[in-house]
Amino acid sequence: LIGRLMFELPEEMGLIAIAVRQTQGKGRGGNVWLSPMGCALSTLHITIPLHSNLGQRIPFIQHLVSLAVVESVRSIPGYEDIDLRVKWPNDIYYSDLMKLGGVLVNSTLIETTFHILIGFGFNVNNSNPTICINDLITRFNKEEGTELKHLTEDYLIARTVTVLERLIDTFQEKGPNGILPRYYKYWVHSGKQVHLHSEEGPTAWVVGIDDYGFLQVHEEGKGVVSVHPDGNSFDMLRNLIVPK
């Protein structure tokens, strides 16, 4: 629906579709994503000028969205220590243990304007099959003796879009350096040792992400190299960067 509408609307007009549940959601690599009620699910349309800081680094958008989801919770007073994090390139995690959601970005360049469709979904209120944000809040209350309220899907979608708008403005004004300190505050990879290509592959250490949003690793004896998310998956369980 949004794919048909987005070229008909004035560029300054935003557009978002919100689903209560998904039966035909799309994931990376053509995967089908099923999402029950209790998840925050939406597709957002935005436009980005090609000749702008973000327009010249368009892969960075997925990182801004992932950060916006995490900050939608952790920027609420009292909720700063809820252990919600970003995993490169496009996942939302509880610590470095369990996936809570993800982001998928598609872009179309028309003349000098990128039309961006951002799909994001994260588990707010379902304890199964993994864990949800309200579970983390319940656990935090029990451990810290606090009484933080559970959050709702619509509230967090609204906060995510609001935070994203501010992150985009900051990126357009200051470039990657205006965003990366906030991103690294919440990501799960700092200093992780990995092997490239296979379990017997060369050893490398995660350094960060470059100005275009690609993962940077320091390969033993070769210095820093970038790994592109379209061709690689960061496997947290085996501690590898492997070709998809």
UniProtKB/TrEMBL annotation:
Pfam families: BPL_C, BPL_LplA_LipB. Keywords: Ligase. GO terms for cellular component: cytoplasm. GO terms for molecular function: biotin--[biotin carboxyl-carrier protein] ligase activity. It comes from the Eukaryota. Signal peptide: none annotated. Belongs to the biotin--protein ligase family. Residues 1-172 form the BPL/LPL catalytic domain. This is BPL1 ligase. InterPro entries: aa-tRNA-synth_II/BPL/LPL (IPR045864), Biotin_CoA_COase_ligase (IPR004408), BPL_C (IPR003142), BPL_LPL_catalytic (IPR004143).
